[in-house]
Amino acid sequence: MEKVRSTTVLGIVHNGQVALGADGQASMGATVAKNHVRKIRKMLDGKIVTGFAGSTADAFTLLERFEEKLNAYGGNMKRASIELAKDWRTDRYLRKLEAMMIVANKEELLIISGTGDVLEPENGIAAIGSGGNYALSAATALKKHAQHLSAEEMVKEGLTVAADICIYTNHNFIIEKPV
């Protein structure tokens, strides 16, 4: 079975704004399987925005678990993220899931991985997926040299650079901001 490759997810905190976006491509081997995959989800009436990279079925399992953790911890995103990461690392079933997540609220971004990591990026930029490093590089330059742009504009431009370079990323973006 060919590995499903997908995605670039980019989140930015800039000038009191937070935006999270992703492209819409899923690829199987050298073939584009779908152009309009929705990799960004809102939770808690839009207060939390999540983005995922990796296997879609695995990501949905993690999104469901994350939502359960959010509800269990009163919407505390950081605590829910830490509890999910602990479960993901220690649970025999979850340990096999191949995905990563970025979660965001109005103040911060976190990257959650299956190795038990919950990372809060120092520079306010988080990127995952096949084109993540391209988007991260572009967003870092934009944040340093284009202060006048909004977080949403920086996410769009970072994703555009990734889509122009990475064959697993397309230009069908969905960008959301937490409320």
TrEMBL record:
SUPFAM superfamilies: N-terminal nucleophile aminohydrolases (Ntn hydrolases). GO terms for molecular function: metal ion binding; threonine-type endopeptidase activity. Its main location: cytoplasm. Signal peptide: none annotated. The active site is at residue 7. The keyword Repressor does not apply. It is an enzyme of class 3 (hydrolase). Gene3D superfamilies: Glutamine Phosphoribosylpyrophosphate, subunit 1, domain 1. Na(+) binds at residues 163, 166, 169. Keywords: Allosteric enzyme, Cytoplasm, Hydrolase, Metal-binding, Protease, Sodium, Threonine protease. Its EC number is 3.4.25.2. It catalyses: ATP-dependent cleavage of peptide bonds with broad specificity. GO terms for biological process: proteolysis involved in protein catabolic process. The keyword Magnesium does not apply. Allosterically activated by HslU binding. It comes from the Bacteria. It is found in: Cytoplasm. GO terms for cellular component: HslUV protease complex; proteasome core complex. A double ring-shaped homohexamer of HslV is capped on each side by a ring-shaped HslU homohexamer. The assembly of the HslU/HslV complex is dependent on binding of ATP. Belongs to the peptidase T1B family. HslV subfamily. Protease subunit of a proteasome-like degradation complex believed to be a general protein degrading machinery. This is ATP-dependent protease subunit HslV. It comes from Pseudarcicella hirudinis.
